[in-house]
Batch of 4 targets.
Target 1
Amino acid sequence: MIDAVLYRHLQPILNNIAKPLVKMGFNADQMTLLGFVIGLGALPALAYAHYELALLCILLNRLSDGLDGAMARLTRRTDAGGYLDSVCDFIFYMAIPLGFLLAAPNVNGVAAGFLMLSFMGTGSTFLAFAVLAGKHGIDNPNYPNKSLHYMGGLTEGFETIVAFCVFCLWPSLFVYTASIFAALCGFTALTRCYLGYQTLRRLEA
């Protein structure tokens, strides 16, 4: 919901961090893969109830996700890099509820499954519209440097990370917090579906 505002304010900071990394010879794709591996470390950490370690993996993953975009802007943005970034992000998002499910399947199973279903809704509406937005040349003024058309909503990247942090800080409340966030993600998926459909219908008309 506030990703566009945060993006504008964080971009100069991320650029300053990315510059020495680029000078050292690192590229955006390497940062994407490094962040992905670190982020997946949250899965076994959650499964074995090491919530502080999982939180660290999540935060480092999100930092790398910001840095890979900054590094790409400082060097060369590519469709291959944007594709890799999107794939890694969505797999990482799914890994977090799976970790809580593995930690306590009898307690967390239903809430984790509901959250994963809602993530499928937000992800599919996002990616499907991004493909057709590229086909029809739909502008994306809030995110001009993104490889894919970034469709907003009530729950975007910032809200998802806040939710992940809440899950790790108060794991005993996961069933309640995950259910609430899943409902919000479901609302986002429905609004994206409706708005995307109406937008494309108007273009075809």
Target 2
Amino acid sequence: MTATRSVAETVHLLPQTKQLRALHTIVRDRHADRADLVVTASRIMRRLLDAALELLPYEPHDVQTPVGQTYPGLRVTSQVCGVSIARAGDSMEAELRVMAPSVRLGKILIQRDKVTKLPHLYYSALPADIARRHVLLLDPMLATGGTALAAIEVLLGEGVPQEHIVFVNLLSSPEGIEVVGRRYPNVRIVTSSIEERLNENAFMEPGIGDFGDRFFGTDIAA
């Protein structure tokens, strides 16, 4: 049985460099041009996916170089797939496809009931062998944690172990991290920012607004 990891081991925050802050300055600006937002957010997503792939298991794999020497390389020991939480997660799916063109991709659609506020699973399409894969679960926002929990439950129901799930997101709230960590302590989280708090409307502060609407151009101008 895998030992339960501490929060320090499960939450992987990208180095908070000046360049990353400059990228966040663009995507958080309410007046940002959509083209600038998409290009800049994609740059952050690349960093996030690189960090997530770093968490996978690797094994030695030597290769011969063009000059006849041996390079002591590495390769991933487990097959990988990406699973996006529609619709905002689709923005990260495209970047993963660029980085790993042959990767298999699944999709989960979860929406909140307008009355009960509880997440409801509407659709899932996952690789048949997902239980044998490491899964990069993709959703730009980790706010209350309700949608994340519902998506993780879908993966667990398909036989994916907790420790094989890496949840990749752009922004995380402290509340969401706590909720996911308390329920599923062996699921790892990779994020580019841990926000200050959730407000009374469950939006993160300082936040980024509705990222899916802004990224795909379906937001309504004020």
Target 3
Amino acid sequence: METKIKISDELVMNQIYMIREHKVMLDSDLAKLYGVETKQLKRQVKRNAERFPEDFMFELNTEEQKILRSQFGTLRHGAHSKYNIMAFTEQGVAMLSSVLNSIRAIEVNIQIIRIFTKMRHVLSDNTEIRLEIEKIKGKLDNQDKNMGIVFRYLDELLEKQELPVPKRTRIGFKPDELY
């Protein structure tokens, strides 16, 4: 199925927030993308609550809503006063297409899931790079320690060479004494 609706990756990425250590999208942002009212989206989620366990969707408490409003300026004061904001994880977003029975919801979901997948790949690539850098740092640290030991031994050898050589009495044949 060819996706007809094209939403920019940047638009979707700018609507993904980190809340409770989860990457989530908010109900109002999703409703705009799906072309439905936020109350309709919430109604469908409430009717199908068994499809949205805590790791798929959770409601923000009052403190989280205040923090979100102050940090991102995305929420108009009073716009969400009646009900708590719903935050959907990647799995929750995928589940939304099954409760919002529209072609647009399916097409938008496909795009959103692809963006979540891209983000996961970028993060895993960065993690691999960081691990490689840490491995190299560890090797360099060991190399620095080994070089320190080598220089310490060289210093000790130089100190031994600088000591004065005591005069020795000659033993054996002396040419002056023959005549």
Target 4
Amino acid sequence: MSYSIIGFGAVGQALARAFARQSIEVAVASRREPDALLPQARAIGPTVSPKTLQDAVQADTLILAVPFWEHRNVAEVLPDWQGKTLIDATNAFGVPVEELGGLPSSTVIARAFPGARFVKGFNHLPADVLAADPKVGGGRRVVFLSSDDDAAVPPVVNLAERLGFASVWLGSLGEGGSLVQARGRTWAPLIFQDLVRPE
């Protein structure tokens, strides 16, 4: 299984730290050239490898950590996303609700990636918390997952556990997923909730 993180801002780097902590190889890509990402990647760890966007999207599992509307640029890289798992770690805070056509933000993104197995996850924690060791006080920090495709979820649960997190299943994008998706300038109720599951 190969992994990549698309977007190398605060959230992308936080996720890269989670991979590096467990010595899991991960490609990282952004609008910038790979050489521009190299100093930050090296500072995080040797398992983090900057790639071009075209190379990074070849991974089996991709975590989308870009500003909301930039998902469209990523989606254009491949004509078909069949066989890939896409984890949506974006937030649509500040995006006018009418621009989403009344849909949850993750549904808008999912429709841009035809064929992908799509899961919302890793988006509700601030970057500094996401970057920290998820083992806290005898437990593991929680990440929330939601999807309209039940078959897409188990590999993401497995990844979350490999990274040291505990996962909590919220259900579909329109129901449970709405608990972790911003609407306009309003944060959903589970955003920023730093929960720990006891071992």
